[in-house]
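Question (not urgent): is this output format expected?
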Amino acid sequence: MANLTTIPDHYTIQFETNFQMLLQQMDARLKEKVKVVQANGAAVRFNQFGLTSMSNVTTKNSATPNVDITMPARWAYPIPKETSSIFSEFDSTFLGSVVLPTSETMQAQAAAYNRAADDTIITALLGTATRTTPNSTNVFTANNATESVAYDTTNQQVAVNFVASGATQNSGLTIAKLRKAKQKLDAAEAPTEDRILIVSAKEISDLLGTTEVTSNLFNSVQALVDGSVDQFLGFKVVRSELLPFSSGVIRNCVAYVKNAAVLVDGGKKSYMDIRPDISHSLQIRSTAVLGGVRLLDNGVVSILCDSSIG
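Got this back:
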């Protein structure tokens, strides 16, 4: 019997009664990897305390010197976000035995919130921060003027063509790049605990293919791929496909310490209402308030990786 390429009109077609979610990131992977504060106001100020130093005492009973300590402030500005879906009052009738996808809609909106939170954190890590400089006569009073602090691509970035020695050439993620990022955090006296590395699936694959990986390190990378471990070279490895690109194929991976950035989170709220103003349609709406800021510039290192290689 020949295969049917067209289903005759009198043949019965069976439909599933439920909906299947398309593949997507459902969880928030970075919220526990930064400092989180509750959104309460149009702006949130984070006070910072600078360095001091000690000097030699060379004279008895001399006047005590006072050392000024800088006390700048960083600012986060939370932004309202929303997503909404509408179902006609007749949808449940016309769908017949197919269930109205209200549950799937709620799940999709929750996943959208989780991705928005991760994206806000990544933007805070690599984006422009807002800083207020202290008043010169009173360190507890900030000037009204604020300044923008762009990410330091000169000192806090591992170049896409970085190699430990020899001729430079573009590459994906290599052990040499990770060692360089670790060196920068060590030199900044960043704490060795709570170090995070955000990479995509491509960069984990790069590590498996690099010729620099010893057999011992290869086993560690293989365990990353398998998901049995999430630690590598002192970093807690988090996979995210939300990392930004520059110049088309150059991905910005991020190595940082947990207290280097903050997420301002007002939480997610969801509503399911019948809207009389739009023919009694069912509206499912979720809202959130999210903001973030980089607190420690030298606690964040961008690692540029060429995603077109390999």
